[in-house]
Design a protein that fits this description.
- The chain is α+β, with helices and mostly antiparallel strands.
- The chain has a single domain (3-283), classed as Clavaminate synthase-like (Double-stranded beta-helix, 4-Layer Sandwich).
- The chain is built from seven helices and 17 strands.
- The strands form five sheets. A seven-stranded mixed β-sheet has the order 1-2-3-14-6-16-5, covered by helices on one side.
- A hairpin with a 5-residue loop joins strand 10 (192-194) and strand 11 (200-202).
- The longest helix has 15 residues, at 216-230.
Length: 295
């Protein structure tokens, strides 16, 4: 019997009694879908630490996004969210890197550089640092609910532009790499979406840098205002990792952020699947070279 235990006053829950290595029945799918529709972020403790089980469980809820490349350390269908190289050793600091890990420790949603937002991400902790590396989440449905009606009226029907390169350039990072630019195109998404349980939500992130039809300065002002409202402490759930936690979140109505840890001292081995609502398995970055689907 699966139980659901809330972890935050507004969202996030622990799913108790779920074995990700066991056969996945229609009843399990229905129960997890219901929990995710209600809470948007769910954690499963003591999940199976095998890539095969991770992939099988994920595929029960939608087709995979396929990573554009990997370090060869894990299954090719998984995103390698770690500080490890192909041999499993800590990647040393690179002073010449154009973007450092800290550049990505901002609230975002996964894969906004697709024509449709992704459904869920499922991140599994194989090795977690003894301290730090919490993952922070925001339920953008709760943020939308609390907006004044005047703001809701103002943003209804607006389309935001998501562009990682321009977002990084705002922080002083310069790429100058046209191949990478083609991999991460600027893509539009509705600023207000309807979530799985019918509630409206903001679709936002640090990579949202424009509004279709608006001057840049006005767009920045509005998006920065919404981002500041959304990232208030009262909206944040902080997940403290245990080994074998599987953390599932809905990219369509949440934002998340990594937090710092001693990445050149402690190993962190997390592996992520990301799934779409429907369609074939396809690359998670539409501008990337096609990857061979596994089914």
């Amino acid at each position: 019997m699966i139980e659901v235990k809330p972890l935050h006053p507004r969202f996030a829950a622990e799913i108790i009694g779920l074995d990700t290595a066991a056969p996945i029945t229609p009843e399990i799918v229905q129960a997890v879908e219901a929990a995710m529709a209600e809470y948007a972020v769910c954690v499963v403790r003591n999940a199976s630490l095998t890539d095969a089980d991770h992939l099988r469980f994920s595929r029960a809820f939608g087709p995979l996004e396929l990573p554009p490349g990997s370090r060869g350390r894990i299954a090719k269908e998984l995103y390698d969210i770690s500080n490890l190289d192909a041999k499993g050793e800590i990647i040393p600091f690179d002073p010449n890197a154009k973007a450092q890990p800290i550049d990505f420790e901002r609230f975002h949603t996964d894969s906004p550089f697709n024509t449709q937002p992704t459904k869920w991400s499922l991140l599994l902790g194989y090795v977690v640092p003894p301290k730090g590396a919490e993952t922070l989440f925001i339920d953008t449905r709760a943020v939308y609910d609390d907006l004044p009606q005047a703001m809701k009226d103002r943003i209804e029907g607006l389309t935001a532009e998501h562009d990682m390169f321009q977002a990084l350039e705002r922080t002083g990072v310069q790429f100058g790499d046209e191949n990478m630019r083609r991999m991460f195109p600027c893509l539009p998404h509705p600023l207000v979406r309807t979530s799985a349980n019918g509630r409206k939500a903001l679709y936002l992130g640090w990579h949202a840098i424009g509004i279709v039809g608006w001057p840049k300065t006005e767009a920045w002002a509005l998006l920065d205002e919404l981002f500041a409202i959304a990232t208030q402490e009262k909206y944040i759930y902080s997940h403290h990792w245990r080994q074998a936690d599987m953390l599932i979140w809905d990219n369509r109505c949440t934002m998340h952020s990594a937090t710092a840890f001693e990445r050149y001292q402690y190993k962190r081995d997390c592996r992520r699947t990301t799934i779409n609502e429907y369609g074939p398995e396809r690359p998670g970055i539409e501008g990337a070279p096609p990857a061979a689907a596994t089914r």
